[in-house]
Amino acid sequence: MIRGRFAPTPSGQLHIGNARTALLAWLQIRQAGGQFVLRMEDIDKPRSRPELARQILEDLRWLGLDWDEGPDVDGPYGPYTQSCRLELYQAALEKLKSQNRLYPCYCSRAELMSIASAPHGLDSEGPAYPGTCRRLSAEQRLTKSQIKTPSLRFSLPDRELQFHDAIAGYACYPAGAGGDFVVQRADGIFGYQLAVVVDDAAMKITDVVRGADLLDSTPRQIWLYEALGYTVPRFAHSPLLYGPEGKRLSKRHGSVTVAGMRAAGTSPERIIGCLAYWSGLMDRLEPIQAAELVAHFSIAKIAAEPLVIEASVLASLAGSSL
Ligand code: GLU
């Protein structure tokens, strides 16, 4: 059984880029007759807001998408809200600790910021961590632990990593790419990489479709799958949407949130029509329902190039002129 998911973070409103990812992930699963999971990624509790979580679900339903399992419908692999799954992340952390894959990191934010971008950095993830605290002696660790609570980092294996992405194609990352990454912050919050891997494995996700901004997270997640003994899912990273001047879509481009477009009187069919046209699923820009796209969907139709959206189309979606 093929199983996919959409995993929004409720720290902001659903915008057109998220809606596109949700649509593609949903179409893939509905076309294949699989099960679709909605998971609310509020692991960073201080930055998440319950009213945004509710609104995201409402926006998705308004767009014509549905899910078989999720925070509001439950299911066999629940709970479907990350803040209710902390014991699972803790258990995974213990497993990694028992394999000696983690070490405490005492570096301050200022120290981390001063690390020059190394050739092995993963661009979208910031400069690669140079492994400073990996090399501390037991004595140095003891001294530092008396003044600071550490974060926990995962030690990357010293091997290159390759994988195939259904949209982006073949990807190869050299040994050490991105550097050792944080799996638990000093304030106790579990890292995104850990939570997403534990959840996708526990929820038996076979296919991950998400935005290309997370492509560079994938090698890290594959290392975690391997260390935790989980099966790695198939990945497809959809290209990002850019505004007319080549910048990633943002508030500057008008109300590119689903709620904003809805408030401006734009219909869900019009939004879905634009998303489908931009994704190469339709050859004309016209309104359509999400369900009408299911039968002919194929991930192979999605082009890997980033999309530049015309100003006039954005303005009409947002119900305003720019
Ligand atoms: N929660 C992440 C986000 O909203 C997505 C995680 C994922 O799809 O792996 O960016």
UniProtKB/TrEMBL annotation:
Keywords: Aminoacyl-tRNA synthetase, ATP-binding, Ligase, Metal-binding, Nucleotide-binding, Protein biosynthesis, Zinc. A motif ('HIGH' region) lies at residues 8-18. A motif ('KMSKS' region) lies at residues 248-252. L-glutamate binds at residues 5-9, 41, 192, 210. GO terms for biological process: glutamyl-tRNA aminoacylation; tRNA modification. ATP binds at residue 251. Its EC number is 6.1.1.-. Catalyzes the tRNA-independent activation of glutamate in presence of ATP and the subsequent transfer of glutamate onto a tRNA(Asp). Glutamate is transferred on the 2-amino-5-(4,5-dihydroxy-2-cyclopenten-1-yl) moiety of the queuosine in the wobble position of the QUC anticodon. This is Glutamyl-Q tRNA(Asp) synthetase.
